Amino acid sequence: MFAKRSHLLNNVNLHNNNNNNNGNAKCHHDHGKCTDSCLQVATNVTEQKHHVTREIRGKNLGLCRGFRGCTVWLTGLSGAGKTSIAFELEAYLVSRGIPAYGLDGDNIRTGLNKNLGFTPADREENIRRVGEVAKLFADSGVVAICSFVSPFADDREMARKIHKDADLKFYEIFVDTPLNVCESRDVKGLYKKAREGVIKGFTGITQEYEKPEKPELIVNTDGFTIKESTQKVIALLEEEGIIPKTLRDVEKLPELYVQDSVKEAIINEAKSLPSVPITQVELQWLQVLAEGWAYPLKGFMREDEYLQTLHFNSILTEEGAFRENQSVPIVLSVSTENKEKLDGVSAITLNYEGKPVAILRKPEFFYHRKEERLSRQFGTSHPNQPYIKMVMESGDWLVGGDLDVIERIRWNDGLDQYRLTPNELREKFTEMKADAVFAFQLRNPIHNGHALLMQDTKRQLLERGFKKPVLLLHPLGGWTKDDDVPLPVRMAQHQAVLDSGVLSRDDTVLAIFPSPMMYAGPTEVQWHAKARMNAGANFYIVGRDPAGMPHPDKEMYPDGNLYDATHGARVLKMAQGLDSMEILPFRVAAYDKSVSRMAFFEPKRKEEFEFISGTKMRTLAKTGANPPDGFMEPKAWKILAEYYQSLSKQ
Q1: pLDDT confidence of 249, banded at 50, 70, 90?
Q2: Is 500 a catalytic residue?
Q3: One of 84, 95, 150, 314 is an active-site residue; which one?
Q4: Which segments constitute the ATP-sulfurylase PUA-like domain (predicted)?
């Protein structure tokens, strides 16, 4: 038989054992029976009104304006999925600029309520305290997410009343997962102990759980992913106005390719319109836009989007609800001659190598202030920086507008199967049942130090409770400077690393990121992270001097580099509009001579480590010498060495 609840206690405060409450208190018990653990009620307290109103908090708290303070109360059996939903919901809200905090039953009982047991009276006091704390969170403008078994209906009603009396919204969510499912999960081994009689009064076994009669929502986690279950709570909060509908996840990114049904008509229209030629790099940017890497951009930037990018590294969403990170301008340049010829037309055809590839709608022309653009994006306008050189040689006008891209862009170089769009990558991660995706951006060959970093990241994610973290190994596939290793060689080298088992194929997706490389340091690394976020990654590994290069004037700075090696990672952690992505700092790896392998650098043993620079690696490869054992997978090294040796024969 279930143990039934025998009595209810009044709303009370714990008696101060040190007797220093500096005021009067009334005991509700016979004083002959009162002990140090006696519960008492203070009688000489008066509520103090805040000077800051909820409206003011709503205007200034978080990135998403408006007062959204409320409490979401998740109730259900142990193992039902309450905490999983709570933390998933918390992450969702915080990533969208809505302050939220998860108050978990276990966490509360190790701190605030560590002096309470599981008697009916202690259970009631546990919930009363949590209800009061949640009310304070909600009143401050935070969404308080409480995950507590809270088996008694009277206790939950008490928590609701605490909020009602304060004119705060309270949402009771019944996580209605069947007992047999909860028991089969038994993550903490509690059901087993309860069945064995080790734990007394365990809810669902020897203690009754009183199901909510009229909860705001019922969620069943059996047969559903945590994300799917959480989405039901998100939908409720959207309907209640807590979450603006403009912030909801886009399940499928809108692509800019035209539908097959109108493709022929678009091609005929393109042939009838005035046209401008575009370069290979501009075609790469067209692919980036068409596939959704730069979502929510709908085409080459108009002047307002361009200005926001240059000055804020972000753009406002259409609804103006919040800013999306967009740190690099994606623009199309035209000559003065073409600008004068095309100004005022309703649409322009973009041609690549004489073939129509897209139509630019409602074009908007604006002057290309190159020095301003370059100084803001690169921190220099030095003409010997290779991407800057291209910009300086481009047209004196920029033209923006929405795009209709005629067909998917293919390069026919034997690598198109690796050019997965953001939507295709999202589908791939879903098929793999990934619950975490960590992206690694690279434009260089992989050595065992990189592999160590990726292996260690996977280990950390598993330790944090993720079941299937997946690596997005994502080499940059657009334009790079002449002395970088070409994409086909890098892809063959990456495949050799996977073939060797250094990285597991079972939880790795090797794909090509179509963006050109700009070597714009901290500004560009934000773009690299944002694009991977659009593809479904929620963790991003950033290393030393990302997107950096030597300064064209080597005497300009003491280290000879264009950017400080630490700034990319530091800026990325502070960047606006990347809230749904966690930045993982790059741990420095070097060759550990004591064990003949790559290992994380330890300053205390610095004499035992060797840093093998890119210059030294290239020299070894060109001369046919091998690197130290354990530096790089041998077959991967062979591919790299053959490439460099082929250069010396030219």
Answers
A1: low
A2: no
A3: 150
A4: 251-408
